Amino acid sequence: MGKARLEAFSDGVIAVIITIMVLELKVPHGSSPADLAGLGPVFFSYVLSFVFVAIYWNNHHHMLHTVQHVTGGILWANLHLLFWLSLVPFTTGWMSENRFATWPTFAYGLVLLLAAIAYYLLQTCVIHNHGADSLLAKAVGADVKGKISPVLYLVALGMTFFETWIALAIYVVVALIWLVPDRRIEKVITSGAGAGGTAE
Amino acid sequence: MGKARLEAFSDGVIAVIITIMVLELKVPHGSSPADLAGLGPVFFSYVLSFVFVAIYWNNHHHMLHTVQHVTGGILWANLHLLFWLSLVPFTTGWMSENRFATWPTFAYGLVLLLAAIAYYLLQTCVIHNHGADSLLAKAVGADVKGKISPVLYLVALGMTFFETWIALAIYVVVALIWLVPDRRIEKVITSGAGAGGTAE
Amino acid sequence: MGKARLEAFSDGVIAVIITIMVLELKVPHGSSPADLAGLGPVFFSYVLSFVFVAIYWNNHHHMLHTVQHVTGGILWANLHLLFWLSLVPFTTGWMSENRFATWPTFAYGLVLLLAAIAYYLLQTCVIHNHGADSLLAKAVGADVKGKISPVLYLVALGMTFFETWIALAIYVVVALIWLVPDRRIEKVITSGAGAGGTAE
Amino acid sequence: MGKARLEAFSDGVIAVIITIMVLELKVPHGSSPADLAGLGPVFFSYVLSFVFVAIYWNNHHHMLHTVQHVTGGILWANLHLLFWLSLVPFTTGWMSENRFATWPTFAYGLVLLLAAIAYYLLQTCVIHNHGADSLLAKAVGADVKGKISPVLYLVALGMTFFETWIALAIYVVVALIWLVPDRRIEKVITSGAGAGGTAE
User: Fold this and answer.
1) Which one of A71, B164, C27, D167 is CB 3.0 to 4.6 Å from D160, fit for a cystine?
2) Using an 8 Å Cβ cutoff, are D80 and D114 in contact?
3) How far apart are CA B141 and CA A78, in angstroms?
């Protein structure tokens, strides 16, 4: 089973998700900077969600790179991840239209948490199919980022009931943690290719 | 005739279909959980349609895997399938906005039935072009799922005039039947590759 | 210069065009068959446009199959074709919302005519770059379909000022002419591959 | 690290961007030519933006052609470019709905300027990773177009406060500068392939 179509379909879905979010940036009726300024919360939310979806695409790109055979389980784990990502435009719109009210901000974080769990399940599924000695297993290693993110999301979800801006700040922190380039897989692939040459 | 573009185009269309359905999940004006709860039927319909389209993509992925040469007939049979799938966002929206009223629920099932028939035609077209001994012919075999689904859809279509929730339950059952991973093609490919090695 | 990305980008644009047309099928507010029947003209227009865009994708698929090197001219001729195709959802919507009034039906045909001309320019550009002995040049041959279509469009454009349903009938006829599988390129490729083996 | 998915994802995003812009061409309620004429500014803006996004795709296609290994830096520089391009449908809509008022025309040019800078950063990133003797470095050369465009954008941004039509004329000039086929990379690839044969 080749992975080309799994990648192509995921790329297609993620490309549409990241692009239709911009439809939420509704053209203001006036033409002054003040009219644009009213879109501030929507624009901030768009940037945040763009970065999150971009991070998922980026990590997905790296993870799939290590996959050598695609199983039915991997296909469905991948579709499960795409499902939660497909809800990001909705929660982004709800949160920004309500100016970061409690429940919309909660829902935004909840979908991010569920996407993170879906990503973890996909990763586990891939490692299960490729063995504990596989490239991905080595690359993920202790997976500090993967473990700390859900904890941060949970803290943020709790904070939405006290101060939503703290929850938002935590979402930004999670994004920044992942924005730092993740060289683990690149490194393992390079060293693996040097040692064995069969990685590609 | 290569199959790369047939796959790429189908992936593109299915990716857009599965993603624009989320546009039907219109952002509620209020910010309370009650406002979100009002979206319950829309959300249920979105999940159901997401799963159906995902199943089609999944089976399409497996079917195309066995295709070795693409003919004009296969191209058009494929476009015919994509046409009915492209109506899923519309019937999903009509059904959920009318809270599962009789005719919208009927239309939803009808489009699913027509997509199932289109899939069957595509499958028949591929088998016709590749021979009764081809991978796909062996993999499909008695094709119990493919034969039972239209029957279930017909029963559901009839039930919409009595109890729409029974029709909906049948739609869910059909989805669950297909969600069980279909290992037929995977198995035949694996054994075929073992025996002859020419499958890929 | 590879043609993979030219194909991938064209597939992406055409996939989005063919799918966003369904957004024009706006969910009716009522739930009766009469509410759906009101969508009749919109549905007819959607089917017609789906078939036209599908024909373009199909022919584009065959044409690109014969391309061996992509030049800047081919890239821009292709973008020019995609531009006119991108207007199809707009003219489809205008025509169907106005129930086939004169000018919208004229505009619909005009965009089809301009797309046909753009396709002809792309074809000419490819043949110019690959030589009069190339696969495409042989496959196109006298190009009866390619020459009769613009004439039919022009007749239809004129008819919109007398009887728009005649113009619509001519659009349907053009679609049917092209729906008949075009085996020219397939044939030439097959015979070319048999004779020289260098076609692929 | 392969570049196939980077290309596929970029193609997907750009294909969606270029196509959803047509959604801004809202179907007019009347059916007379006058109703269509009212869309003049929207249509002009659509054509201009279509050409700009097409130019970016075209140049992106050529640039990526020279890339041999993709790094995390290139991935993010590419996503940064896609971010600014994703805002083009929004600024196009704001500018055309306000009939080229000062601030919307300013915002339109600003996003073009930021996209140009993002493209420059991506190009610099690729050259940095492939060496000053790389194909792209040679192809870009003095990069007159790349250097003159930001200057022209800045002049246009200033002009929006005096005469917006001059700013628009400058945008058109920039588009025309780039529409002239850029044969630099094609030439260098051809000569490089002739000399060393390792370019592909």
Assistant:
1) D167
2) no
3) 28
Residues 6+ apart with CB under 8 A from C119: C56, C59, C60, C81, C146
Higher pLDDT residue, A72 or B133? A72
3-state SS of chain A?
CCCHHHHHHHHHHHHHHHHHHHHHCCCCCCCCHHHHHCCHHHHHHHHHHHHHHHHHHHHHHHHHHCCCCCCHHHHHHHHHHHHHHHCHHHHHHHHHHCCCCHHHHHHHHHHHHHHHHHHHHHHHHHHHHHCCCCHHHHHHCCCHHHHHHHHHHHHHHHHCCCCHHHHHHHHHHHHHHHHCCCCHHHHHHHHHHHHCCCCC
Verify whether the Cβ–Cβ distance B36 to A97 is below 8 Å: no
The 3-state DSSP composition of chain C as helix, strand, coil percent (nearest 5) reads 80, 0, 20
Largest CA distance in chain A: 62
Query: Contacts from C132-138 at CB under 8 Å and sequence distance 24+?
Result: C134/C66, C135/C66, C135/C185, C135/C188, C135/C189, C135/C192, C135/C199, C136/C63, C136/C66, C136/C67, C136/C185, C138/C188, C138/C192
- What confidence tens digit (pLDDT) does each residue in C27-57 have? 898 999 998 988 999 999 999 999 999 999 9
Cα distance between residue D51 and residue C83, in whole Å: 9
- Residue C144's φ and ψ, nearest 5 degrees, are -60, -45
How many angstroms separate the CA atoms of B101 and C31, rounded?
Answer: 7
How far is residue D101's CA from residue A81's CA, in Å, rounded to a whole number? 43
Q: Which two tokens stand for residue C134?
A: 């190339």
Lowest mean pLDDT among B21-30, B125-134, D67-76: B125-134
The answer to whether the Cα torsion of C101, C103, C107, C113 is positive or negative is: positive
Which is it for the CA torsion B168, B170, B176, B182, positive or negative? negative
pLDDT digits (tens, 9 = 90+) for A84-125: 999 999 999 999 999 999 999 999 999 999 999 999 999 989
What secondary structure does DSSP assign to D151-198, as a single string?
A: HHHHHHHHHTTT-HHHHHHHHHHHHHHHHS---HHHHHHHHHHHHTS-
Q: What angle do CA A121, A46, D111 make, to 5 degrees?
A: 130
Residue at token pair 């009726």: A29
Between A42-51, A67-76, A191-200, D13-22, the lowest mean confidence (pLDDT) is in A191-200
ipTM: 0.86
In degrees to the nearest 10, what's the CA dihedral of B38, C33, D27, A13?
A: 50
The DSSP H or E segment spanning B144 is helix B144-159
CA–CA dist B172, B156 (Å, integer): 11
- Facing C17 at nearest CB: one of D19, D50, D181: D19
Residue entry with tokens 């904890």: A151
Helices then strands (H, E): number in chain B?
10, 0
* Chain C residues near residue B72 by CB distance under 8 angstroms: 58, 181-183, 186
Of C30, C114, C21, C129, which Cα lies nearest the Cα of C74?
Answer: C129
Partner A, chain C 5-34, Cβ-Cβ below 8 Å: 12, 15-16
Residue C42 to residues C95, C98, C145, C176, Cα–Cα distance (Å)? 8, 10, 28, 20
Instruction: Find the residue in C nearest to D65 (Cα).
Output: C1
Contacts of C15 in chain A (CB under 8 A): 12
Q: Do B72 and C27 touch (CB under 8 A)?
A: no
Q: Where are the beta strands (DSSP E) in chain B?
A: none
Q: Does B117 touch chain C (CB under 8 A)?
A: no
Q: Is C89 exposed, middle or buried (0-12, 13-18, 19+ CB in 10 A)?
A: buried
pLDDT band for D166, please (50, 70, 90 cuts).
very high
Gyration radius (Cα) of chain C, Å: 18
